[in-house]
């Protein structure tokens, strides 16, 4: 496992932990921030794996499309929805949006876990 993959695994655990806390403004904001960390690490570990395979992707969207094409992820629509949520939360703050995205975070956890497990596999 690479250092980045290890960081990704730790970030997933921290997001999962944040989602078990009772919802308050602070816990919601923390969970969204941890989601953003997971998202960034997810596409970076895909990019890292792609390079070891002689492939290239330069953006999060490009990396998710490459990962889907190579069967590293199985639910492209879920990842693209996650990309939209990440872009919205990273570039604007709106209380209603924060609450909406927060409610979706637990649905993103299985996608993160699946990617981490797939990338731990020596052969894809």
Describe this entry's structure for a reader.
This protein has 124 residues and is mainly alpha-helical. The chain is built from five helices and no strands.
Question: Which features does this protein show?
Answer:
124 residues
Short description:
The protein has helices spanning 3-20, 25-52, 60-69, 76-91, 95-120. The protein has 124 residues and is an all-alpha fold.
Helix/strand-derived category reads mainly alpha
N-end to C-end Cα span:
14 Å
Q: Summarize the amount of helix as a percent range.
A: over 70%
Q: Summarize the biggest pleated sheet.
A: none
Strand content: under 5%
Element pattern in H and E: HHHHH
Instruction: Note the total helix count.
Output: 5
Mean pLDDT: 94
